[in-house]
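Sample entry (253 residues):
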Amino acid sequence: MSETTAATAGVGPERSALAKKLEARLGQKLVALVEARGEITIEVLPENWLAAATLLRDDPDLRFEQAMDLCGVDYLSYGQAEWDTTDVSSEGFSRGVEGEGPGRFAWANRPRNVSIPRRFAVVVHLLSIRHNHRVRVRAHCADDDFPSMPSVVGIWPSVDWFEREAFDLYGILFDGHPDLRRILTDYGFVGHPFRKDFPLIGNVEVRYDPEKKRVVYEPVASVEPRVLVPRTIRDDSRYEQAAAERKAAEGAK
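Predicted structure, serialized as tokens:
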């Protein structure tokens, strides 16, 4: 086991039996194992993605025969707080914005994440019906400019459309996928809308041109960039009144 694995696996009697089995079976393929709040997350290198997936499905002590979900993740600006939470008033509304949220920065000034060196990752959630166990498996794509990962459709056919979704929304290519096409956006859509550097107003807009008698795509011109800021209620007299009424009702009993 690597030093990273030992540090994150929580070595000690508090580890579950499943965590110990995963460490023993995956061995050097395991980059990290984190067990928190009753959930286990393991991380493997992209070159071990297929081998680890096959082992998780076929090992008789693991038998993760069903893939419940697969998704992409963009870790650009991960962990950087956009909203003021600690230095605002304890009463009223907080509408402060730091300005580095998704779609609100120029690429040249994009936020950097030093704690997670790779930007894109693929995450799959697995279920063992035989042993009633669940596990989350993650691998980071090796290339940020051309993110790719081997397809696991041959191992869990249910991830076919999930991989297409991750390709469509994040631009992650799945090598070996039988039919890797967009699934949620239009075939002519420009970019990948779940990437954190994707502009909030998009790149193109669609309208019907009465002269050409067809739908045309044009650069965004009629939509103004804006940020919808939710209001966070920190103190509300209605809640205090409701609590007082409950207390009075309980006292009357």
